[in-house]
Amino acid sequence: MTLADNIRTIEARLPEATKLIAVTKTKPVALLQEAYEAGCRRFGENKVQEMVEKQPQLPADLEWHLIGHLQTNKVKYIAAFVSLIHSVDSLKLLQEINKQAAKHARVIDCLLQIHIAQEETKFGFDEAEAESLLQSPELETLANVRIVGLMGMATNTDDEAQVRREFQSLKQLFDRLSLVQRPNVRFQELSMGMSSDYLIAIAEGSTMVRVGSAIFGSRN
To answer: Mean pLDDT across the chain, nearest whole number?
Structure first.
């Protein structure tokens, strides 16, 4: 199977409303170019430095998604071009994204990362923290960010029932928070599902799957 075959196979399984984010971390630019030629237009990177190095070497119509943990001091490097930040896990980070977006006269779309896994290593808000952020008065001042949904990572386990339960809980939270009415909150994206569990995620309502090894093969 070629890389283009892998992409076609995955896209054939996705509902029309679900977007494929090709996870390109650690992959060389030549492979990204190949994925682009096969029709991929959304690339997900974990590390700011890697994204900043690759972005100028690839076509301008690509969407760059930051899917890894983001430190506030790194936001300035991607603020000019990032399409969506999946991993907002604090008000402080949101405020920094707003500040840097304003310098480029942009509004940057963001997802709140929710901690749904039974693992301490994952970042993210719990449900109550996400809810209180969306109700907080500070949000009024952030005109250069837009919160467009949620992201979560299921536990890394072979227990499909557990993964399904975690995705269901995230979808329920997404539906509940979708009712929040603020000028810069417009829920439309639910980013959940990776190479090992994206089929479960789309069955549970994901609108974005982040797929790396199923496209590019296992990590280098």
So the answer is: 96
